TrEMBL record:
Signal peptide annotation: 1-19
Domain spans labelled Sialate O-acetylesterase: 102-207, 423-518
Transmembrane segment boundaries: none
Keywords per UniProt: Hydrolase, Signal
Name this polypeptide is given: Sialate O-acetylesterase
Keyword Hydrolase applies: yes
Length: 667
């Protein structure tokens, strides 16, 4: 009888739990709902359960479908509040302090994730940030192989000096501008994750329509979790063999590892060459040593030997028998290091290579034939490095295993899909740093993401505004010096403006050559707000810098005509224009002088008699200074359609492609 009573109580508890109306995590106290548009409210309950929604005098009841899901569409409401949102089924849920206003989804990687407290204006901005009608919802980071129906966590937060430090800075400064200009509440939904590729933010069905991605596997959540676990097990095996307790910020003394007599018996045997991620070190950053042994026959002369290394990423120091013979980096495709005769010895010799890997790909990434020793006697004195026994050990290590960068789609599934179909006004997007290496593909991916998100939110004309990447890295990375990946991805972004209802904030003057996270986010947010205020809210602001209308070549000069708008200016104390270069049919670019004549910029160089192409600010970190009177810079551009450095590069970072399904410890 006692067992029967306990069973009955358990059944009643189960029934009570299953009967509860449940709401997605995007709905909390202090939420902002979109004004002047149908508002979608949804959730779950028992199959066939009647659910009633109340908001600002509106009431509507629905019955859940076969899966227990329900959806209520509330007619348009004007800005206002605070209101109470009540959802009633077999239980009742109440949300208080609900406002009706403008809602924007902010997404992308670290520069969107970048918070107010780290900005250049943080001290003064935080102190005065008492704006209770600005609200922020941070979607909790979540990786999911299949689409999730709810966020992993988060809550709507009212803006105050105590809360604003953790707001997305770009989103906050955008929201502040709208809030003050329109005098309506503004909510920002922040779904961002630093260091991520655009592929992670795209749905699987959209991505595989692109021929470059048709082989992306659709994993289950169990398969993805198992992959993470297998990689963690691999490092556990490494640690067991090498006596390393943890790879979290691991560091040890490697001062003797370059020596020929260094004891390496217990080091890990590995294949050579190979990209770390593909072979032995998935998701690794740090310093790792490789040691190999080769023999010179007694009759072989130690003179005239050269070490040939293919690409080494990121940076390497090379030693033979304890003596450093040179270095290599990912900017050097082939290192031909002449070995002094005093370094080599008859019999066994030891080559030690110390590699510092700071980001993503690391190791020896050229084909095996690119790594060899060659004597003066030519082929007969060639030693293939791939044929040697190699061993590996860690000097320092940090692993990034549970990351979204091992499989596309996982952030769309885990952080965007759960927010759909929350009614938003539009999207702010700041991403692309990770995709600069694959810049040419980006001109297809960003428009595809825009179309997909619009379809899923059921808003085919949803505004989508993005940030063009700012100046970064070295000025010398330009047309004349091997190309500039950041210039190429800026062009891919600029071409996305062909998609209707898009806008681009040019930030070519707001970057930092040494920091991928520039601290001036206030002007980034303001420039995005100018686009929205001008295009959506009827404010007559200039929202774009000078825009090229046409380019022509006449009598050795290049004439660039700009669209009518605010007057062109050179932001320079002496009035000189910088950043222009021209090339003839040989495709060799030279810096050129440029002058403003009305809405035309005239460019010429004595080194290019018959120009066929002109480029402006075509560098990772350019010095162009063409603005309009409104203080907005011109976007980098080029007139030619010559082949770019990233046209042949294809993103390949997914499980069962670049990342093997299983890694095994070499014995």
């Amino acid at each position: 009888m006692k067992k029967l009573i306990l069973f009955s109580v358990a059944m009643l508890c189960t029934i009570a739990v299953s009967a509860h109306v449940r709401m997605p995590g995007i709905f909390t106290d202090h939420a902002v709902l979109q004004r002047n548009a149908p508002i979608k409210i949804w959730g779950w309950a028992d199959k066939g359960e009647r659910v009633t929604v109340y908001l600002n005098g509106f009431k509507k009841a629905v019955v859940t479908d076969q899966t227990g899901r329900w959806l209520v569409v509330i007619p348009e409401m004007v800005a206002g509040g605070p209101y109470e949102l009540v959802v009633q089924g077999k239980n009742t849920i109440r949300f208080t302090d609900i406002l009706i206003g403008e809602v924007w989804l902010c997404s992308g990687q670290s520069n969107m994730q970048f918070v107010v407290q780290n900005t250049a204006s943080a001290k003064t901005e935080i102190a005065k940030a008492n704006w209770p009608t600005i609200r922020h919802f941070k979607v909790k980071e979540k990786i999911a192989a299949s689409p999730s129906d709810d966020v992993a966590g988060g809550s709507w937060t009212v803006c105050s000096p105590e809360t604003v430090p953790s707001f997305t800075a770009v989103g906050y400064f955008f929201a502040k501008a709208l809030n003050h200009e329109l005098n309506v509440p503004v909510g920002i939904v922040n779904a961002s994750w630093g260091g991520t590729y655009i592929e992670a933010w795209m749905s699987h069905s959209t991505l595989i329509k692109n021929p470059d991605y048709r082989d992306v596997s659709a994993l289950t959540d169990h398969q993805l979790s198992s992959w993470f676990a297998s990689v963690e097990a691999l490092y556990a095996d490494y640690g067991k063999k090498l006596g390393i307790e943890s790879f979290t910020n691991y560091k040890t003394n490697d001062s003797l590892w370059h020596r020929g007599d260094c004891a390496d018996l217990n080091w890990i045997s590995i294949p050579f060459p190979g990209d770390f991620d593909k072979t032995v070190l998935p998701r690794f950053d740090g310093t790792v040593w490789f040691r190999g042994r080769f023999r010179l026959a007694d009759h072989t002369s130690p003179k005239g030997w050269t070490l040939h290394l293919g690409k080494v990423e990121d940076y390497g120091d090379i030693f033979i028998n304890g003596k450093r013979i040179g270095g290599a980096s990912n900017n050097t495709n082939a290192s031909d290091l002449v070995i002094d005769a005093s370094v080599l010895t008859p019999g066994e010799n030891v080559i030690a290579i110390k590699i510092n890997d700071y980001w993503e790909t690391g190791g020896f990434t050229s084909h095996a034939q690119a790594y060899y020793l060659e004597g003066s006697e030519g082929v007969s004195s060639r030693i293939e490095l791939s044929g040697l026994p190699w061993k590996m050990n860690f000097a320092s290590a940090k692993t990034w295993i549970r990351t979204p960068n091992v499989q596309p789609n996982v952030l769309f599934n885990g952080m965007v899909n759960p927010v759909i179909p929350y009614t938003v006004k539009g999207v702010l997007w700041y991403q692309g740093e990770n995709n600069a290496e694959y810049a040419f593909q980006y001109r297809q991916l960003l428009p595809a993401l825009i179309a997909d998100w619009r379809a899923r939110f059921d808003q085919p004309e949803m505004p989508f505004y993005f940030v063009q990447l700012p100046n970064y890295l070295k000025y010398q990375q330009n047309s004349k010096n091997g190309g500039a990946q950041w210039a190429e991805i800026r062009e891919s972004m600029q071409k996305t403006l062909a998609v209707p209802n898009t806008g681009m904030a040019v930030t070519i003057d707001l970057g930092d050559s040494t920091d991928v996270h520039p601290r001036n986010k206030e002007d980034v947010g303001k420039r995005l707000s100018l686009i929205a205020l001008n295009h959506l809210y009827g404010k007559k602001y200039v929202s774009a810098g000078p825009e090229v209308k046409s380019v022509s070549f006449e009598n050795g000069r290049t004439l660039i005509t700009f669209r009518e708008g605010a007057r062109l200016i050179a932001r320079d104390r002496y009035g000189y224009l910088r950043g222009f270069e021209v090339a003839g049919k040989d495709k060799i670019f030279f810096n050129a002088a440029a002058v403003i004549k009305g809405n035309v910029v005239v460019v010429e160089s004595p080194l290019v008699v018959s120009p066929e192409a002109v480029r402006y600010s075509w560098s990772n970190n350019p010095d162009g200074n063409l603005y309009n009177e409104a203080g907005l810079p011109a976007s980098p551009f080029r007139s030619d359609d010559w082949v770019l450095t990233t046209e042949e590069r294809k993103f390949d970072r997914w499980i069962n492609n670049m990342y093997p399904v299983e890694y095994k410890l070499s014995k």
